[in-house]
Every structure is written in C-alpha cells, then in structure tokens.
C-alpha cells in the first residue's frame, strides 16, 4: 500500500474537505480507497485479543442487558461461547501491531502527524453495534470488509443524558438525521460531539477507526502544571509587591493578584510551553507496545548510516519537530533533542529516507540513539 497522504476524499479534494467539513460536519465519503481490502480477518483480530499487552474490548447487547462491556485479554474459550445476541470486538492501536495497518495511518497525514492517535479495528457479525454515542475527537470510519449502516444524529456534550445500567456512554436519546451504508473503501467522517450509531449488516463487517488526539483542557493544565512544578525549586515562592500600606487586612487586593499572574506567566514562556507541548503530544499512548532498547553494536549501526540503506519511523514511534531559526527541536516519544531543521524535516515529514542523506557528522550521535531505542528501523527503498 502506498504511504502517500490522500489528496482526495471520495468526491471532495482534501482542501475542500478541510475547509467545509473538518471539525464541523459529518459526511459520507464513498470510494475514498476503492481498492482497499482489510489486511485482517475476524480470526486474526480475535487472536490479537488474546494478547496481554493489547487493549481489547467485547461489547454485547440484548434487550435484557443492553451494551455490556468486557475488557480483554480474553481466553480463546470466550470466542467459542459467544452469545447469540449481537456483539462487537474492538482492538486498539492496531497500527502499532500490524505493518499494513500502520501504512494505512500514513494516508491521513494531511492532518499534522502529532494529531494522529491510533487505528482501532472492530469486527461485528450481523446486528453488532457499540450503540449510539459520541466522541470528543475527530474520527474517520473506514469500512474494511462487509457492510455497515451508519446513522448520524444530533450534537452532544457532557450534559447529554446516557443510559443507566451500562459502563458505556450510550446516549439515552438518539435523533437520526442521516443514514449511510458503507462498503469496503468507503469512509464516514465524524467530527467531535456528533452522535453516531453503526450497525453491522452482515457477518463480514470490519471497520477501521482512525482517531485523532484531542486532549481536554483539564488534561492539558494537569500535565503542564506537573511539568512546570518538576522544574521549580522550593526557593521559588510568592512574594508581595512593594506594599503601599494595608488599610483592609482581610482584602485580597488587585496588586497581589497582578503579582500572582506575573509569577505564573514567568513560567509560561514560549520556550517552556513549546517544549512541554512537543513532548506531551509525542508521548506514546500505549508505551507497553514500544520495544525495549536493543543492544545493537555501534559499529553495525555506523555501517548502516554510511550505507545507502533506507530507514523509517518505527510503528510505535511518534515524531514531531519545531523550528527556531537555524536550529530545531525534535520530539520523539516524549523526549526532546536538538538538531538542524533539515534533519528534523526529513525525519518527521517523510515516511522513509536514505540514510546517506542523514550522514551529517553533527547528527550522527542522534541517529545512533534513535536506532538503539528502536524508534528508527531499516526498511526497503520500495517502502518509501
């Protein structure tokens, strides 16, 4: 599968889609990937659900017990005793497990790669569904096999009523406004907050959900404040501005509040904020899927770097960068490195590159470190 980002989404150019629909309105995008065929079978998905490090879920539904959730890993016997009522199996981060699915993720790099999250793959026999719900992030729902009916509903938020008696956030009310039937290669785009409800129409239904990172403001403040606090010493404390006299000892005056704001703003320099953000947005969501650093002989890695071999980002690695004049900051899996802008652009904007292009002595140590951490890996030129 080509790793070139899409330029056309069904009837729309990517530019028209971004201008008219992205984070605004749901849309059905037929035949976006007309030749796409699921690289996974239902049996292979069930096999992944047996693995300890893989996040998997099983959702069953009946009138007596609506939308019940079981978390994996599962025993093989569980799949031999599935109920007759509809069910759905969901596997997270399949792009980090299956190379062909990782290549699929590259098709959506018309959105900044630091916004891409992971690909969840679901299988359901006829009638299987996860119920009417909404997400807080954008998602492209690519049909990989079989057919699925999608109903698009109303806009929702945290105040939208949900059903009791289930651990899932199933909407109590769903008002269908659009209906689509998706076959292999069709995509349904759902923006944040839009209710949707997918139901398998046959026993071959496999759907690939390409999701995007959208941290809550609460999570941003929580992580940022911890990052700032970790860099401060106990000597740094609040101090009063030059007092002019306190006539009302119980009052918190505006001068004190201004002093407090200045103290906070001093810790929010552009340098500090961008450094934190780069590390935060490249931190792996599933670190347990990242391989341990490998003891590769330095001489062997040096041979790779001096050769015409090709390399690419490892499936588990997240790369982003920030340019600052003649230098750049490279962010990989939550760590920060200094390098040249050209080096950062090559590593982050391209899916594969000849190592001879990156043989600048100034970047040699960094290349060796990325290889030893298995964040870069060798590949065939054809993969690029």
From TrEMBL:
SMART domains: JmjC
Keywords from the UniProt entry: Dioxygenase, Iron, Metal-binding, Oxidoreductase
Keyword Metal-binding listed: yes
Cofactors named for this entry: Fe(2+)
Span of domain JmjC: 100-229
Pfam families: JmjC_2 (PF08007), WHD_ROXA (PF20514)
GO MF: 2-oxoglutarate-dependent dioxygenase activity; metal ion binding
PANTHER family reported in the protein's UniProt record: MINA53 MYC INDUCED NUCLEAR ANTIGEN, RIBOSOMAL OXYGENASE 1
Protein name: AraC family ligand binding domain-containing protein
Organismal lineage: Bacteria, Pseudomonadati, Pseudomonadota, Gammaproteobacteria, Cellvibrionales
């Amino acid at each position: 599968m080509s790793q070139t980002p899409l330029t056309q989404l069904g009837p729309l150019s990517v530019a028209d889609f971004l201008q008219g629909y992205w984070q605004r309105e749901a849309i059905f995008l037929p035949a976006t990937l007309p030749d796409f065929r699921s690289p996974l079978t239902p049996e292979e998905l069930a096999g992944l659900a047996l693995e300890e490090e893989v996040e998997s879920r099983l959702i069953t539904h009946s009138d007596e017990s609506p939308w019940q959730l079981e978390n994996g890993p599962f025993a093989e016997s569980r799949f031999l005793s599935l109920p007759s009522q509809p069910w759905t199996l969901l596997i997270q981060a399949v792009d980090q497990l299956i190379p062909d699915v990782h290549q699929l993720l590259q098709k959506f790099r018309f959105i900044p790669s630091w916004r891409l999250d992971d690909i969840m793959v679901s299988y359901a026999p006829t009638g299987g569904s996860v119920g009417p719900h909404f997400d807080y992030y954008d998602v492209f729902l690519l049909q990989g096999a079989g057919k699925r009916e999608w109903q698009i509903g109303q806009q929702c938020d945290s105040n939208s009523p949900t059903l009791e008696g289930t651990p899932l956030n199933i909407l109590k009310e769903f008002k269908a406004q659009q209906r689509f039937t998706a076959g292999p290669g069709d995509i349904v785009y759902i923006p944040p907050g839009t209710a949707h409800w997918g139901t398998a129409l046959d026993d071959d239904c496999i759907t690939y959900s390409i999701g995007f990172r959208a941290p809550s403001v609460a999570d941003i403040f929580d992580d940022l404040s911890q990052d700032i606090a970790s860099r401060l010493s106990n000597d740094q404390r609040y101090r009063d501005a030059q007092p002019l006299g306190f006539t009302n000892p119980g009052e918190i005056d505006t001068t004190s509040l201004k002093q407090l704001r200045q103290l906070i703003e001093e810790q929010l320099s552009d340098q500090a904020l961008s450094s934190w953000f780069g590390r935060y947005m490249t931190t792996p969501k599933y670190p347990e899927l990242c391989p341990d650093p490998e003891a590769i002989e330095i001489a062997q890695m040096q041979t790779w770097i001096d050769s015409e071999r090709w390399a690419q980002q490892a499936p588990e690695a997240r790369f982003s960068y920030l340019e600052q004049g003649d230098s750049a900051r490279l962010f990989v899996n939550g760590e920060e490195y200094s390098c040249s802008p050209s080096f950062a652009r090559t590593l982050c904007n391209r899916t594969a590159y000849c190592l001879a292009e990156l043989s600048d002595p100034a970047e040699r140590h960094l290349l060796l470190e990325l290889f030893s951490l298995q964040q870069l890996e060798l590949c065939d030129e054809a993969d690029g």
